Amino acid sequence: MKLHRVLALSLALVTVSSVHAAEYVTEILSETEDHTAGKASGGVTGLMFGAIGGPIGAVLGAGVGMLVGHFTQDGTNTHDRAYVIRTPEGKEKTVRSPKYEFAVGEKVQYRRKRLYPISQEVAKVDAIQTQKAMP
């Protein structure tokens, strides 16, 4: 009896691990700024300085550090790229793209929370399936 449970659990774990993240072809709606790096570094620095004042100081320091990091990155114009895309459900979503640069209206592939360029063949197949004309 225990062997069946172990086999069922093993099969369930193997099946769950083979599920992949969402992957689909979409187009860039607009470009926006990403301040994640500034917020993260400012938040950690503020946490360390605020920890001198105790737990409440650490929380307040982290919050102030995030704001300072965001505005410092914005003021020095060192922000990263992010793009607004449309999901298959019709919702708009902002996605970071640290490696690749795209133009508005360009077809891209969304995979594992990142955008990747696609070949023209994939774009043509997608256009045929969705009955849209290629740009």
Give a short synopsis of this structure:
The chain is 47% helix and 24% strand. With 135 residues, the chain is an alpha+beta fold.
Descriptive report:
The protein is an alpha+beta fold and 135 residues long. The chain is 47% helix and 24% strand. The chain has four helices and five strands. It has helices at 2-17, 36-50, 55-75, 120-130, and strands at 23-34, 80-86, 92-96, 107-111, 114-117. A five-stranded antiparallel β-sheet has the order 3-2-1-4-5. Helix 2 packs antiparallel against helix 3 (55-75). The longest helix is centred in the middle third of the chain and has 21 residues, at 55-75. The radius of gyration is 22 Å and the shape is flat. 12% of the residues are buried. The model has no long low-confidence stretch (mean pLDDT 80).
Distance between the termini: 61 Å
Total strand count, please?
5
Average pLDDT, to the nearest integer?
80
Helix-strand topology string? HEHHEEEEH
Strand content: 15-25%
The main sheet orders its strands as: 3-2-1-4-5
Structural category is alpha+beta
Low-confidence stretches: none
